[in-house]
Amino acid sequence: MTHVEDPRSAPPIRWGILAPGGIAHTFAHAVNNHTRAQLVAVGSRNRDRAERFATQHGIPTTHSSYKALVTDPQVDAVYVASPHSMHREHALLAIAAGKHVLVEKAFARNTAEALEVFAAAEAAGVFVMEAMWTRFLPHMAALRAVIARGEIGEVVALIADHGQSFNHLPPTHRLHNHDLAGGALLDLGVYPVSLAHDLLGIPDTVHATGSLTATGVDGQITMAFGYGERAQASLHTTLWSKTATTAVVCGTEGRIEVAGSFYAPTSFTVVRDDGTWWAYDREIDGGFQYEVAEVARRVAEGATQSPRMTWDDTLAVMRTMDEVRRQVGVVYPGE
Description:
CATH class of the largest domain: Alpha Beta
Largest sheet: 8 strands, mixed
Structural class: alpha/beta
Shape: globular
Strand order of the largest sheet: 8-9-10-7-11-12-13-14
Helix content: 25-40%
Strand content: 15-25%
Radius of gyration: 20 Å
Low-confidence stretches: none
């Protein structure tokens, strides 16, 4: 089994959190409980919100502006956890201040914005990575090793879904809000799309059908990707139903059944056509600590990107999602 290094073995790094929303709590818990990194500052336009977050996670410094956060000399790296519509602006703010940056997925609204961020990072010589935590998890390293060993033969199909029931949320919520780049694809569908890119590469063909919400964002999308002569990916995402969130990798000699939620620490079963099978199962608390450790290791060695989630990887996923949105008719303001 491919070895994944303990996140606690990564060198320490000092984090500033930009926008203390729901996902930032998950990030903060992982940093505090499973790494040697430090949370030194948090920034929010709402000081009370920043102070509550800081108290909850033991963060010593709060800032009532993002500018103050990114220019704080204590901060080595900035975690951008704002809505997708603001990722470009906030990443560029941090890069201009000379900080390394981890940007929540989806990395930006579109490819053009992502290119702008990477160009700025290259000019500044700072590390930037999309926070696609799935790629760094132990079960994914083990799964890729199964495929590489040829245990299931040639991979010919991937089936994956990610749906959550957000019917209770008001139309103004970021997931339904057109101005905030809401919709199923950028928030949920990015996981199966990124998985397909990780395991099968850049698709030769992309076909998508979708249904829009009353606010004009994608409520549900089904995607079919084609690779070469035989391989295909069948992917689904929705805001309207809590789906199984499983994945199945199908090969000519067997399959890998990944339990839900496939994108989080989980188990999988290898089922071979000859009747044999075995299971991978490893209990892990959290999960974000693996991407946090990756940032710390790469920054320590002077790298500007991660080989497991390169800038080209992020751009390829963004281009695919741009095409999916084009086919289902979702255009964000200013595009």
